[in-house]
Design a protein that fits this description.
170 residues; mainly alpha; globular; disordered N terminus; disordered C terminus; transposase activity
Length: 170
Amino acid sequence: MRRVFFGCRPGCSWSQRPRQVWERRYHATAVESGEHLVRCSLYIDTNMLRAGVVRHPSEWKHGGYHEIVKPKQRYKTVNLSELSRLAGLPDDPTFPEHYAGWVDNVVKRGHLCRDDVWTAELAVGSVKFVDHVRRQSGYAPILKDESNMLGEQPAPYGAQDCGNMLEWGF
């Protein structure tokens, strides 16, 4: 494996780099399959709504909405049968219609604020899933009201409090 140092002259060490490439607030989030995966996908597909760029995810051609709801016949990037299985609807050919309805419901309800569940947590899912991720990663959990999340101290950047998306009713 080869390390790549951005902004360093050849031969400089990791400690001599001028700055980190990624800020602390960017990290992967482990998401359990089922309802948590669907909610995460809905949150991602409504990013451009939160930014005020579009009024509905169908207006943003670069998002995952089109790959799920109106998939291409060739060069597909989303395996719908696998996504359907991971979402808890195995072999459901109507998954795209379900997903479109869920997105419409989120848009209609106006749940468009930034949610720390998806941007600051290291793992989201059942208590068993989060505990497994915690043991595998070596992170100590931060005590929160919700027992099914593994987090770290969030980096502030214009957070808005709109409640926990996991509590949304469908």
